[in-house]
Amino acid sequence: MKILIIGKGYLGTRCAETWKDEAILSDKVVESVEDVEKLIDEHQPDAVLNAAGVVGKPNVDWCETHQAETIEGNTILPITIARACANKNIYLLHMGTGCIFYGPKPDGTPWDEDDFANPSAVYTRAKYAADLVLSTMDNIGIARIRMPLDSRPHRANFIDKISSFAKVISVDNSLTVVEDMIDVFYQLLEKRASGIFHVTNPGSVNHKEILTWYEQYVDPSHSNEWIEEGDLLKLGLTNKKRSNNIMTSKNLPKLGIHMRPAKEAVEDAVKKYAEFKKQ
Ligand SMILES: NC(=O)c1ccc[n+]([C@@H]2O[C@H](COP(=O)([O-])OP(=O)(O)OC[C@H]3O[C@@H](n4cnc5c(N)ncnc54)[C@H](OP(=O)(O)O)[C@@H]3O)[C@@H](O)[C@H]2O)c1
User: Fold this and answer.
1) In the chain, what are the domain boundaries?
2) What pLDDT, in 10s, does the model give residues 184-223?
3) Cα 224 to chain center, whole Å?
4) Which of 25, 54, 76 has most ligand 1 atoms within 8 Å of CB, for mutation?
5) Average pLDDT rounded to a whole number, residues 14-32
6) Which atom belonging to ligand 1 lies closest to the Cα atom of 78?
7) Contacts 24+ apart (CB under 8 A), 11-17
8) What pLDDT does residue 184 have?
């Protein structure tokens, strides 16, 4: 399979490293349907992965004051790529985020692909806007990931993030182990699967568990202070409420696609992260 990856950032690069010769990782800035059509003509892929987006630097709070860039990169860009793929009759897998769900679902069950979301931040609203329109088009899959946690160090890896914070909240969350994500993406691309997919490891993990594994496998001298969720805003550690949630997938199992349980996959990733750090 020949996969054209648009967006040479953290996760696009991770996919390309794994898929090797099957991947074409494009760093070309695309601004129009014609730009994307040109890339498709040049590379003749079997499928396209949209790994481009605007996630904010140093973090997502940047998006709160850069609405135009955030909407351009997370709403207009995916629609532009989707139009080009439709014109060329090429399957598109678009990367969405599970951070569009804030807090527990009112009935207490995990958020699934049929649920309408309740995004509040500029970034999450812009991402959800793309999901809403792309999900009306054929030949497109939307893969929602959350808090990517990786065996390779990177500033966007949840292990690097959480271990660098002096004050941490203790909450249960759904998250995505990057190795598993890459494997699921490949299967979705192979199947040309249309619709929305929650690409999060089943179950949840508490931040305390992650840092316990971090101290066990990576750095026994690590320490942090535990704070309440509401303190993040009160102490000025974030300028917008963050999403914490538990998600599930109805649609992956229907395709015979399964991910490892969250706790098992996270512990394994932290162990591999420790090994990588020692090299
Ligand atoms: N990382 C996370 O925590 C997370 C969680 C959930 C979902 N996601 C989604 O996953 C996707 C990839 O995220 P990531 O973490 O890999 O972010 P990233 O490292 O910032 O990568 C995104 C890449 O897209 C590029 N890009 C932006 N606009 C573009 C355009 N018009 N044409 C071509 N490339 C463009 C960026 O280039 P420049 O840097 O040069 O602008 C960057 O290289 C995004 O859609 C994001 O919303 C990420």
Assistant:
1) 3-278
2) 999 999 999 999 999 999 999 999 999 999 999 999 999 9
3) 26
4) 54
5) 98
6) 45
7) 11/51, 11/95, 11/145, 11/148, 11/178, 11/181, 12/49, 12/51, 12/52, 14/150, 14/152, 14/178, 14/182, 15/49, 15/51, 15/182, 15/185
8) 98
> What is the rounded distance in angstroms from the CA atom of residue 202 to the CA atom of residue 204?
7
Instruction: From 252, 102, 96, select the one nearest 180 (Cα to Cα).
Output: 252
Nearest Cα residue to atom 8 of ligand 1: 97
Residue in 5, 6, 10, 152 to alter for ligand 1 test, most ligand atoms within 8 A of Cβ? 10
CA of 227 to the centre of ligand 1 (A): 30
Query: Does this model's pTM top 0.85?
Result: yes
CA atoms 224, 59, 96, 272: torsion sign: negative
Alpha-helical runs (H) found in the chain: 10-19, 33-43, 67-71, 77-87, 122-134, 158-164, 178-191, 207-217, 231-234, 251-254, 262-278
Considering the domain 3-278, what is its CATH architecture? Answer: 3-Layer(aba) Sandwich (3.40)
